[in-house]
Every structure is written in C-alpha cells, then in structure tokens.
Hints:
binds hexanedioic acid, alpha+beta, Fumarylacetoacetate hydrolase, domain 2, binds magnesium ion, four-stranded antiparallel sheet, globular
Amino acid sequence: MKKSIVDTIYAAQKYAQEITKVTETHKAFSVEDAYGYQRELIDRYLREGSKVSGYKMGLTSREKMVQMGVNAPIYGVLLEEMDLKGSPLAVKSLIHPKAEPEIAVLLKADVAPDASIEEMEKAIGWIAPAIEIIDSRYKDFKFTMPDVVADNCSSAKYEIGEWLSYPIKGVHINEITVKLLINGELKAEGPATAVLGSPLLSLREQQLSLAKAGTQLKKGQLILTGAITVAMMLAPGDLVRVDTNHLGSVSIQCE
Ligand code: 0L1
Ligand code: MG
C-alpha cells in the first residue's frame, strides 16, 4: 500500500533518503494543509520521546522569498535532538546538508499570542550566534512551499554559541553582523537586518503564526530567527564557523 504523505517524509528524514516532492507523488495541497502534515510529523516524533526545543523561521530573506514566489516566511519546529551541543556533524547521516548563519534567542517568559512587540521583546532572556543545518529531504533541494512546510522546513540540526543576556548593553540587535566561514575561507556575510528587516520582526512573525495555529511561544524555547546569508553546502571534514561582531563565534566540525 502507498505510504501517506507524513509517513513518506518521516521515512525520508529518518533514513536520510531523498524523495520526489510529495505534491507530485501524492497530491497537490495548500500551505495550510502542509502545516497540518508538519504537526502530524512532529507529533510522531513526540510520541517516540522527542521534545520540542523551539522554532525556526525560514525563507526570511527577500531574495529567498522572491526565488520561491512567496511573500511570507515559513516556520518549522525544533526538537532537542537536533541540537549538536558541540558534537561533530556526521554529514553522511544527512542527505545534502547546508549551513546557515543565524541569530538565536532564548525566552525567559511565555509570549502571549496577543502580546505587543515590546512585550514580546521583553520575553527574550538571552541571545547567541547559531548555525542552522538544513537538509531538505527533496531531490536537489527543489520543492514548492507546501512540500517544504510539510518537511518541517528542512530542519535537521543546529549549534548554538554562548548565550549572552539580552539586551546587550549598548548594542541593538539590528547592529549585529555575521560572517560565514568554511575551513577558514569567508563564504558569505551580512547584517542581522537581512532577516525580515530585524530578527525581532522575525520573532514577531513566529509569535503571530503560532497564534494562528492556536498556540504560543513559551519560556525556555529557543528560536532560530532566520538565515542572514545564503546557505552553504557541506562536505565531510569541513569546519564551519560563524563569527559575529557582538556575539562571539560558533562552529561545527563536520565528519
Ligand atoms: O531555514 C531556512 O531558511 C530554510 C527553510 C527551508 C527552505 C530551504 O530548505 O532552503
Ligand atoms: Mg534557517
């Protein structure tokens, strides 16, 4: 019997096997339906004992939105086991991983669905540099919006640098800049404002999206606010590093 959409994506994630877009192999569906499939997928991991660590915003840069022909970002759910916590990234355990430099925030309080942007910002306890490893389960990273949302927005792994208390004295979050280096070579750089104009606006999008879905951001959750530069393909042996002007650095050793 043919596997369901969620079973197909789950197997592709679990066994790191690339698949054809489920909107082709199964049926066309809406972005709204796709969030339903994403929820089913995450519930499956939760039933197996996984725990939610937070959320990630995706397609946050104007370029990527134009490329995808959309005008809104998307979000995925982060699970605790995605956190590398300093261990090496086994490239072969994924399909075609790419690294993105991001700014992560950690919440010290719940954010009510109707909280103002000022109240939302007050809930941020800490901030850190981060590397998100994305790994679309679709062949050649080619997908439609519903496909990628159902695939939990390509979420795979992440590494967080040292958490600093937020706000950082004398530095606005929008003044942060990042450099993405692979094996010491500068591959891309950009300002925090590349993310929807500000990582705070990205967090706001996350808050509003969750409100629409009938849930909310909670104390202790971390949010990857979105890629500041293009994502770079990784190979075994690569050392990925993100340097920032105000948050220090974070790195991942690939094996
Ligand atoms: O984190 C991201 O911005 C990626 C979201 C999904 C799109 C992709 O896989 O490139
Ligand atoms: Mg990302």
